[in-house]
Amino acid sequence: MPKRREVAPAAAPLREPLHPFVGQQHVLEYFRRLGPQALAHAYLFSGDRGVGKRTFATMLAMTLHCERPTGFPVGYCGTCGACRRGLAGSCGDTILVDLDFIRETARVERKTDALHIDASRRIIELMQLQSYEGGRLVCIIPDFDNVTPGDYAYNALLKELEEPSAGKLFLLTAHRPDRVLPTIRSRACGIRFGPLSEDEIAGQLERYYGQPAQRARLLARRAQGSLGEAIREFDESVMELREATRTWCLQTLQSPKRTSALPRLSRDNAREEAVEVLRDARLVIRDLLMLSLGQEEHVLDRESLTQYKAASATLEEEGGPTKLVAALSSVNEAARIADETNIPPATVLGWLQVQLKSA
Ligand SMILES: [Zn+2]
Fold first, then answer.
1. CA torsion sign, 201 to 202 to 207 to 212?
2. pTM, whole model, 2 decimals?
């Protein structure tokens, strides 16, 4: 007989308030038809970053635990005891395996944030307890594609996923589902989340993030289907990094003989920031390419249009579209290196700098 929880264990509160879920109608429809009783024991939500995979997982868990749900899969009341605990991040029946969870469970200081054996053991331990709210235990593991196959953690979890139990639900998310081992994929029901439309993103920014209509539109366009990306623009350090990336890119392409300062990466979060820099560099070069091909209407970052036009004029003398196509493929190659190797992020950016200069 599994031990019953006496108190709901404390967990980190949610960083963002939960706004009504937007988009992914096919996902909502699928679960609506299925109903709460027919849920499988594990799902793998795949799709780009910032399209609602983790938000949906959180909302589904809250709805399952809610005492007076008004609908399914998203229909928690927001006011009952279970909902209040859920919103405060202290619902004992939802285990969110985020960075805090991973860092807290590590017995030794670790350099990586990958799911390790201690975290994995803790998940299994927690999932073996009985539900506190009297319903189903839900374990949400975001970025499951980061769990390296062959890890002890992976094997232990695989075993857990092999033994479906009515009282447990695993919700895994991955933006690169191809990296999740087939053995896991075959045990979890795969659900694909698509990019959001500009209307869906702009509407959400206007209604819940206080953005005037025009600005909401600009941000939505630049976000390329990811609400998460759009929201990140409200973070000052993200904005600074984006500015620095834009300046660096434009200067390097316009005056290859001068050395412009590389965007500075923080010590703690260098890998993620390098991914951001490369994403933004791709956006800048893509927009410059559109301009040089005479397709101004396809420029995504409308706020930088004036700056881009000025740069574009100089670039015409420097090789124009050919140079930009070469630059774009260098950025893609840098992104691949950053993603697939352990080369330090600053070194990858340095390599890209050399490529852009010689493009
Ligand atoms: Zn409720």
1. positive
2. 0.81
